[in-house]
Design goal:
The chain is α/β, with parallel strands linked by helices. Among the domains are: 111 residues, D-Maltodextrin-Binding Protein, domain 2; 112 residues, Rossmann fold (3-Layer(aba) Sandwich), CATH 3.40.50. It is built from 14 helices and 18 strands. A five-stranded mixed sheet has the order 2-1-3-10-4, with helices on both faces. A hairpin with a 4-residue loop joins β17 and β18. It is globular. The termini are far apart. 41% of the residues are buried. About 7% of the residues have low confidence.
């Protein structure tokens, strides 16, 4: 069998190499007899790290050098994080495929000592340089971080940082009191998951995840950058054979979703410096929130398909206003204490427990909730919430369960509602 070699242009960061390596292996799998060779290319965005992108003149910070190499024939295809691509692309370049998307959520990784800082009333220092994140996250975190006194609102300090994922994440492990020390960093879930999928990169990632706790930000309150979590594979428009091979990786549902999100940018303008997020869910809901380039604030939900009612959905939707607190049995308390993963379908599940301490004793708890209202209520009770399902019902947990980063595999959630305890 004759072997064809394709040169894939990629940025040199740990994440870029990991996701480009995945694309290379998939192309080889789908096209027997094709070998894909990675070509590392340094971009302007990788070199200028001493200032936020919003303060740098021009655009195409992470794509221009790859585009030039592709158009000059130095490489045959390129892989980009689709959120980095501008709406208008060079005529010589064609979008060859958009593979199935990773989760588009942002995630904040905190050092585990953050809880002690909050209890002590100390400022929580969080690193990010994204205008969108700086616009949306502060108001959410003030309600989402646990409180340990009724009058306590966590003091937040945001620090602008740049660099590779591993460089940014390493700052939560700096010595306490040093200038570089951060209590948390905001990152894209998709990037971390792709590092977790890579045999080499995962070693460094899991080392950096030691002694941390995470918070997966809900899309309704903190929608992601348009097309976050999606990859774009591009090739020259006149390279029919290469385009044909790449097309085997295309996922049309992902393209539909990212088109809906990027249409918001076309509608209101904006690029890498935009202060609004747009996230399209599989149910057809499009969450939009943030500031338009004009400065006008927008908080909008579009579309949506009513999901088919499931047994879980019926339990979650039930609303009992005339309820009384119930003493949990010793068996129920023991079950909660030994459970690591807990899903609270309704905040009243906590309110009706006469023994709420069961949620904070025993095995360390990872708690997920149905939506932000339950999240905020439980945070006021001092509980750390790891994530929510944006009101989409427990069926939406199927999207999270396989993710390596979350480590849910082979574990069951204890399902708590105001109607019953269940599994």
């Amino acid at each position: 069998m004759n072997t064809t070699t394709l040169k894939l242009g990629t940025r040199k960061s740990l994440l870029a190499i990991a996701q480009s390596s995945w694309v290379a292996r998939e192309l080889e799998r789908l096209n027997p007899g094709t070998r894909v060779e990675l070509v590392g290319i340094e971009t302007r965005g990788d070199v200028i790290l001493d200032k936020p992108l919003s303060q740098i003149e021009g655009k195409e910070f992470f794509t221009a050098e790859l585009d030039h190499a592709l158009m000059r024939g130095e490489v045959d295809l390129t892989v980009h994080s689709m959120k980095d691509l501008s709406i208008d692309r060079p005529n010589q370049i064609q979008l060859a495929a958009v593979p199935a998307r990773e989760l588009q959520h942002d995630v904040i990784l905190f050092h585990e000592s953050v809880v002690d800082r909050i209890k002590a009333g100390k400022p929580v220092r969080i690193g990010t340089s994204s205008p969108r994140r700086l616009t949306l996250i502060p108001s959410f975190l003030k309600q989402a971080l646990p409180r340990f006194r009724d009058d306590q609102i966590p003091e937040l300090q945001f620090v602008e940082i740049r660099g590779n994922v591993n460089t940014r994440l390493s700052r939560v492990h700096e010595p306490e009191g040093t200038e570089r020390k951060l209590d948390g960093v905001v990152l894209a879930f998709a990037g971390l998951e792709r590092l977790a999928m890579d045999a080499k990169a995962s070693i460094e990632l899991y080392r950096l995840l030691e002694n941390t706790r995470m918070m997966v930000l809900p899309l309704k309150a903190c929608p992601s950058a348009p097309a976050q979590g999606a990859l774009a594979i591009e090739a020259r428009r006149d390279s029919a054979e290469t385009l044909s091979k790449i097309a085997k990786m295309h996922h049309e549902a992902t393209l539909t979703a990212v088109k809906s999100e990027r249409a918001v940018l076309e509608e209101w303008g904006g690029g890498c410096h935009q202060k609004l997020g747009a996230s399209y869910l599989p149910s057809g809901v499009l969450f939009i929130q943030g500031q338009k380039p004009s400065g006008e604030w927008v908080n909008e939900t579009r579309g949506g398909i009513k999901p088919e009612a499931t047994s879980f959905a019926k339990i979650e939707a039930g609303d009992v206003f005339d309820f009384t607190s119930a003493e949990l049995s010793a068996d129920q308390v023991a079950q909660i204490q030994k459970s690591e993963l807990i899903f609270i379908a309704h905040s009243r599940a906590y309110e009706m427990m006469k023994t709420p301490a069961a949620l904070t004793t025993g095995t360390a708890k990872r708690i997920w909730v149905s939506g932000t209202q339950s999240w905020f209520k439980l945070a006021r009770q001092g509980l750390w919430i790891e994530g929510s399902l944006d009101g989409q019902g427990f069926e939406a947990m199927k999207a999270f369960y396989p993710k390596l980063l979350l480590r849910f595999q082979n574990r069951a959630f204890l399902f708590l509602t105001h109607l019953q305890l269940g599994l």
